[in-house]
Amino acid sequence: MASVTLQDITKRYEDVTAVDDMNLEIRDGEFITFVGPSGCGKSTTMETIAGLTLPTEGTISIGERDVTDLPPKDRGISMVFQNIALFPHMDVYENISFGLRLRKYDQEEIDRRVEQAADVVQLEGMMDRMPKEMSGGQRQRVAIARAIVREPDVFLMDEPLANLDAELRVHMRTQLQRLHRELDTTIIYVTHDQAQAMTMSDRIVVINGGVLQQVAPPLECYNEPANRFVAGFIGSPAMNFLEGEVVEGGFESEYTDIDFDPDTHGVTLGQDITVGIRPEDVFLEEDSHKAASPTKAFDAVVDVLEPMGKEMNAYLLFDRDVEASAEGRGEGQLLINLAPDTTIQEGDDIRIVMDRENVHLFDQASGEAITHSLE
Amino acid sequence: MSEKDQADLAAMERTEEPDLDRGMFEAWAAKMISNPDRAYRATFYVATIFFLVTTLFPFYWLLMVALTPRNRLSSVGVFTPGGFNPGAFVEIFTRLPFHRYIFNSFLIAVVATVIVLFVASLAGYVFGRLRFRAKNALLLGVLVTSFFPPAAFFVPLNRLFNQNIDILRPLMQDGSLYNTPYAIFIPLSALYLPLSIFILMTFYSQIPEGLEDAARVEGTTRLGALFRIIVPLSAPGVATAGVLTFITVYNEYFFSSLMTDGRPQSWAPMLEGILRFQGEFEVLFNLMAAASIVAVLPVAILVIVAQEKIVSGLTAGAVKE
Predict the structure, then answer these.
(1) Reading across the β-sheet that carries A65-66, which strands appear in turn?
(2) Are the Cβ atoms of A98 and B219 closer than 8 angstroms?
C-alpha cells in the first residue's frame, strides 16, 4: 500500500502534449479513476506512473520513493491491461506466477500465493488451461490474479473492462469493488466510461486534452462540476447547456430567460455565460411542485420521446423553428427526464420549469463554474 | 447463392456445344474453360511433379552413383547403379576423417546461427518495435550490406585474418585467425545477418505492445521481455531465420575454403572434405556422392524437426495475429 504523487508531470511527443503539467496526490488505499474522452492523456498518465513511458518533465513518487527514473519492475506496481495481455504461450499457472518466478520466490511460496490469488478471483481448477481456451471474463480474471499475486503497493488498471460484453462488465465492476475492499490497496483505474468512474471510485480525476479538470468524489463532480467540460462529461444523459448573457435581473438567451440577482451570484452585467441544467432538474409546469424552487415556466415543443422503462427521455425544442442538430444536442434543444407515465405526445406544446437549486452557471470564455445553484 | 455463382453453374452445365465440330485438343481446352477447377488441378499436378522431379532426381542419382563400385563408374545408368557397393558409405570415413569435416561445418553453422539469431533478435526488436530517428536510413544501411557479393569482402578480410594480432596470441596459435573457425563464422554471421534481421523484425513487430508492457510490469527488463515473451511467441520466425542461416552457413564454400588450408584439423568445412576425394589422377565420384548424401543428413534432420514451425513461418509470418 502506498500513496502516489504526481508532480508537474508533462509528457510531450514530437509536437503533441499528451499530458500537461499534471499535479495529483493519490492517497493510500484509495480507489481513484482517471476518466476522460479518448486521447485525453489518461492512459499516458497511467503509463508514466507504471514507468512504461518516461515523463518529459516532473517527478512521480510512490510511497515516499521517487520512482521517476525506475523501470516498471522496480516500482512496486502491477497492472491490468485493456487487451488483457495474458502471455499466450503460458498456461494460467505460469501466467499468474510469472512475476513471482522472475523474482525467484521459493516454489512453496509461489504455489501458496497463486492459489490464494486464484481463490480471490474464483479460478480454482483452471490452472493448466491456456489463455486461448478461456472466455473473455475468465481471461480478465487471470489478468487480475496475475496483478494481485505479487501484492503490489499500487494497482493500475487500464480500461480492464472495455473488451468485455455489457453484462459481464457490470458484474466485473462489482467484483472489482469487492476486490478493493478485500485488498485495501491503492487502485488507479483508467476508463472513458463515466458510469464506471461514478460507480467504483472514491475520487475521480477528470482529464481533458492532457489537462486535469477536476479531482473530487463522484457525487461532487456530478453536483458541483468545476467547469463546463466536467459538467458535460459526467452524467448520462449529459447536462443541457444554454448560452446567453447576464442582463439586469437575470440571464437571457435567444430562447429563454431565468431571473436571478446577478450581484449575489458572482456574475457581472453583460458577461457571456452558459447555463447548465441536468435533464432530471427540468419539470413540466404541472409537476413544478417537484422542483425545490421552480423558475418561471417557458414554452417548448416535444420533438422526440424515448421511453426507457423506469423513466422517459424527452427531447424538446424551444420553438418550432429550431432545427434539431444532427451532431448531439444543439442550441435551442433540451433533454429532460420525465416520469414514465407522463402523457405527452411528440409534437405537443408544453410548458416547463427548471429547478433553481440545480442550475449551474459557467463563464463562457473560460468554461469555469460560477455557481451551482441560483438560490 | 449469389448471381455470380449461378452464372458459373450455368456455364458448367453447358459443357458442350454440339453444333461445333472440334478437334480433341480444342474440346479439352473448351472443357477447361467451362470448368476452371480442372485446369487448376491439372496445373497443380504438373507443377508439383516438375518440382519434385527436379529436386529429388539429383538425390536419387547421387545415391545411384554412390552405390556404383569404383571401377564401374563409367557405366552408371540414369535410373540404375552400375553395380552394388554400399561400402562407399564406410570408405568415406576411413579414407579421410570425413566426420571431422562434417563436425567442422556443423559446429561453424551452429555457432553462426546462434550469433545471428542473438544479434538479429536485438536488431529486429529495435527495428520492429521502437521508433527513433534515422531508423529507415539504418535499415537501408543493413540492407545495402547484404547487396555486396561476399567476394567483395574477401580480400580485406583475408588480409586481416592472416595478420598476426598480438592480443590474440594467448588465445590462438601465432595470433592469427587463419585456419580457425573464427575466420569462418565471423564473416559468415555478418553476411547472413541482414536477412535474419528482416525476418525477425517483421515477426517482432507483430507482437502486441501490451504483452511487452505486461512483462515489464511483471518484472522483466526490455531485454527480458524480448527473450521471455517476444521470441517464444515469434517461434516460427525464429525457426525460419535460424534454419535459413544454418543451411546457408553449413553449405557455404567460398569463405570456408579460402580461410583454411583445407585440412580437417584446420577447421576446413564439409565441402572441402567432399572435394578431397578428387585425387591427382582419379576422381572418386562414388565417394564424393556418398559423402554428399551423408553431408545432407544433418540439414535434413534439422529441417524435418523444425518443419512445422518453418512452414507457418514462411507462409503466415506477415499476418500473424
Answers:
(1) A17-26, A4-12, A57-62, A65-66
(2) yes
> Could you give the CA distance from residue A239 to residue B92 in angstroms, rounded to a whole number?
90
Q: How many percent of chain A have pLDDT more than 90?
A: 46
Angle, helix B182-206 to helix B135-147, in steps of 10 degrees: 140
The residue assigned the cell 442550475 is A359
In this structure, is residue A235 part of a structural domain? no
A204 and A145 part of one domain = yes
Question: What is the rounded distance in angstroms from the CA atom of residue B158 to the CA atom of residue B183?
Answer: 9
First vs last Cα of chain A: how many Å apart? Answer: 43
Nearest CA in chain B to A143: B214
Count of domains observed in chain A: 2
Give A73's contacts in chain B (Cβ within 8 Å): 216-221
Domain range enclosing A48: 4-228
Q: Do A253 and A219 lie in a common domain?
A: no
Altogether, the residues listed in chain A come to a count of 375
The upper half-sphere exposure of residue A158, i.e. CA atoms within 13 Å in the direction of its Cβ, equals: 25
**If DSSP codes are grouped into helix, strand and coil, which group holds residue B103?**
helix
With contact defined as beta carbons under 8 Å apart, do A200 and A189 qualify? yes
Name the residue in chain A with its Cα closest to that of B234. A89
pLDDT in tens, B209-249: 889 999 999 999 999 999 999 998 888 889 889 988 999 89
Does B233 sit within 8 Å of A88, measured CB to CB? yes
Q: Which residues of B touch A (CB under 8 A)?
A: 208, 210-211, 213-221, 224, 229, 232-233
Q: How far apart are CA A123 and CA A92, in angstroms?
A: 9
Count other Cβ atoms within 10 Å, centred on residue A76: 17
Q: Are residues A212 and A245 in the same domain?
A: no
B102-161 pLDDT per residue, tens = 999 999 999 999 999 999 999 999 999 988 889 999 999 988 888 888 888 888 888 888
* CA distances from residue A174 to A23, A221, A299, A323, B98 in whole angstroms, order as listed: 29, 21, 43, 42, 72
Which residue bears the cell 592472416? B162
Q: How far does Cα A9 stand from its chain's mean position?
A: 21
Tell me if ipTM is over 0.85: no
CB contact under 8 A, B220 and A73: yes
Question: Is A82 in Cβ contact with B210 (below 8 Å)?
Answer: yes
**DSSP character at residue B61:** H
Q: Are residues A207 and A314 in the same domain?
A: no
Q: Give the chain A residue nearest B211 (alpha carbons).
A: A85
- Angle ∠(B49,B54,B57) on CA atoms, nearest 5: 100
What class has domain B90-319? mainly alpha
